[in-house]
């Protein structure tokens, strides 16, 4: 994704350092068409939401999670609004013990700090890593290998009309449009919208919409936003309504989840 890498060829180095890390920010939407790299990749955001498309699935990933892609795996990427993030690119020769399939993982503080340190290294394929840098690279790979996968992605529909609606909901999860209004906006019938959303995502339209709101809630909580602010900004009528939905999804209240994030 060009947000992270200026010279896109860097991520296709077959040789060079075992890990290349780049971090960056952009205040405009960035999007890349389906492509692949010779290296394995770990994508994550520090601010904003990141969409990663793989095969017939798309994940919307909040800032507390990252997506791992094995080498040569075709994917697309898109940021939603202002975005700040990083990408770690792992040489294929050291990917054998890393996950063989795309997955989302919860980012630990150890992984985040190791990646941020590696992002300061010069990008030089002919300069071997120092012993200290090799230890940090080893920490990053250990974290990718050991952190448990979490099913927190948001599946996106494949139909172009439904994709347009889903993308608009991701960009503005607090929208007050109901199903009929979204169907009219997307130029399809309400029954078609309802039926195809289930077929293509595994969720009803209302359940998918709720999940999109929760994905944004995770990002806001990770940024330290008060629970009441998160609830109102995401369109919930009261903080208690948001707390009830969040607790049902994550088995804890938003405040407890936020405390765990900040203390992790």
Automatic annotation (TrEMBL):
<dbReference type="GO" id="GO:0003700">
    <property type="term" value="F:DNA-binding transcription factor activity"/>
</dbReference>
<dbReference type="InterPro" id="IPR018060">
    <property type="entry name" value="HTH_AraC"/>
</dbReference>
<dbReference type="InterPro" id="IPR003313">
    <property type="entry name" value="AraC-bd"/>
</dbReference>
<keyword id="KW-0238">DNA-binding</keyword>
<keyword id="KW-0805">Transcription regulation</keyword>
<keyword id="KW-0678">Repressor</keyword>
<protein>
    <submittedName>
        <fullName>AraC family transcriptional regulator</fullName>
    </submittedName>
</protein>
<dbReference type="InterPro" id="IPR009057">
    <property type="entry name" value="Homeodomain-like_sf"/>
</dbReference>
<dbReference type="InterPro" id="IPR011051">
    <property type="entry name" value="RmlC_Cupin_sf"/>
</dbReference>
<dbReference type="GO" id="GO:0043565">
    <property type="term" value="F:sequence-specific DNA binding"/>
</dbReference>
<feature type="domain" description="HTH araC/xylS-type">
    <location>
        <begin position="163"/>
        <end position="260"/>
    </location>
</feature>
<dbReference type="InterPro" id="IPR018062">
    <property type="entry name" value="HTH_AraC-typ_CS"/>
</dbReference>
<dbReference type="Pfam" id="PF12833">
    <property type="entry name" value="HTH_18"/>
</dbReference>
<keyword id="KW-0804">Transcription</keyword>
<dbReference type="Pfam" id="PF02311">
    <property type="entry name" value="AraC_binding"/>
</dbReference>
